[in-house]
Amino acid sequence: MFRNAVASSSKLTLGVAVPRAAARQSSGFATSARVTFARSPSRSDESSTTTTLRETFPNLAALTPTPAATSTSSVRPPRSPTSVPGGSRIPTISSLSPTRAPSPPKYRWDPLPTTDDTPSTHTLTVMSTRNNLLLTLSDRQGPLFPTITGGTGKTFKNAARSGYEAAHQAALKMFEKMKEVSREAPVRGSRGIQIRLAYKGFQGQGAEAFSQALGGNEGGDVRKMIVKVEDRTGVKIGGTRARKPRRL
């Protein structure tokens, strides 16, 4: 039976593994059968070879040789890993653009209640003492950021905080903070935020230095925000006995 298969000319080689039980039943056959053809097999040769293998080894599954494709038209081009049937495209990590949540505003917006003819949204308190200058910008809830003093930034220390230059630098720092708050505030006409300037004490050089900086070129944008100026200096009426004056 194998002689007829060898006589057929084909170049296809089949390697068949024979189980041990089939090898014991078949006498004179090796554990593997190799069939070599000298020409390309036809459908009749394939069917006869399959039938011969089934008759010889009934325990084996049917093997149907598949000839290699010779025409280039039948070869399917490799599919792109990012494409799927239907023309759609699978999104990859590089094609997905990360979406960032909008960052919250740096300063809150809680304006003061409007109780007078000149409504103001914030209050700038200028507290001047003999030793320092304290500037605080507050809204309805309180200060928006820490108080700026003559010693902010640690440029001026100890007794130098009571000088004119320390107060001038503190005023410039407050002006920059006020501009940042005005940029983040909701649109209120063309003025941004509206400031109520409150002086509290006129001792030392702090109040004078702040007023000079506000009236100069550095305070041009801040002057447009001010809608009201008031004096909140406390007036002592009676009360306890004051400390004795310092004598040098």
TrEMBL record:
Keywords (A to Z) from UniProt: Ribonucleoprotein, Ribosomal protein
Listed InterPro entries: Ribosomal_uS11_sf
Region called Disordered, residue ranges: 21-123
GO terms assigned for molecular function: structural constituent of ribosome
GO biological process, any: translation
GO cellular component: ribonucleoprotein complex; ribosome
Entry keyword annotation includes Transmembrane helix: no
Compositionally skewed regions (Low complexity) per UniProt: 60-89, 110-123
Compositional bias per record (Polar residues), positions renumbered to this chain: 24-34, 91-100
Name this polypeptide is given: Translational machinery component
Organism: Dioszegia hungarica
Organism placement in taxonomy: Eukaryota, Fungi, Dikarya, Basidiomycota, Agaricomycotina
